[in-house]
# Entry
Amino acid sequence: MSIWWTLHLRREAASVPLARRLLLGTMETAGVDPDISYDLSVALSEACANAVEHGGGDARTGAPSAAYRVTAYLDGEKCLIEVADSGPGFPVSRAAAPYAPLANGSSLSAESGRGLCLIEQLADHVHFGNRPGRGAVVSFDKILKWREDALLRVT
# Structure
């Protein structure tokens, strides 16, 4: 069995915990191991916070964009999450070399600028990309572990 959902959220700070709680609730109900659920929820929170803060104006029109999109797929042994906004996108250097150190010298202990690094550390695979004229997209996935009583356990 597969579960997927898409949210269209306002670029407001209050949307971040909403997306995180929906993901955690979905994974809890499905029977995903709590440690995996936690890692993915932190990565999702960071991606959403970046969309809220940096999603900026609509890349096509230059007008302020009030929304971003979150899609999550739990399918078999993997969870894939995608966060897309309609802002200016990632700097070319970040989209081309996502695992390079951040240009601003941010570290994982910094108060800001560490979100992309955290996503890279918490997920198995990460892709930072730009959609020409349409904004930025962060997609990441992680292999799932299941609780013994899982409803969707892969056999």
Observations:
- The longest helix spans residues 34-54.
- The mean pLDDT is 84.
